[in-house]
Description:
By secondary structure, this protein is α/β, with parallel strands linked by helices. It has helices at 11-28, 44-59, 77-80, 110-120, and strands at residues 4-9, 35-40, 65-68, 98-106, 127-135, 147-151, 159-164, 170-177.
Amino acid sequence: MAQTETVILDQAGITRALTRIAHEILENNKGSKDLVLVGIRTGGDLLATLIRQRIVDIEGEEVPIGAVDITMYRDDLAARGSLPVGKTEIPFALDGKKVVLVDDVLYTGRTIRAAMDALMDFGRPSCIQLSVLIDRGHRELPIRADYIGRNVPTASQEKVEVRFDEKGAPEEVRLIKS
């Protein structure tokens, strides 16, 4: 059977979704006080940078931003073998902060669980909220996103891929059917 790909969000759609997410984050948190963004490498960190810029455009204030690598916190590390370990960069204290964890695609919830475990090694935030560009369902853990760019119900054999250009800007989101 041939593989088919469908664009479910183009660059303009991604921009609109991230702008809406930034507004929702600010509204829910009553502004940017004590707010920090932490993107999950790779993909979520790039989207966190864009959400941060939207918040600057809206509020006129910069919020701290960091990135977390979850490789060593994965529950399938033994099954996957040797994976390259990326760099976690959280150059600020998390204690008492409202952390918005950012990822590109939410699927089983296992990546988010690993990211929360990693964050707890850096401090005790007052809360952790989740922002994702795409929520495709199929949760294995009781995790839900607070801010969602687009819900895309998928079959388990399908794949959702966020494609970024060479500068790290998201170009499109594709649904891939095998």
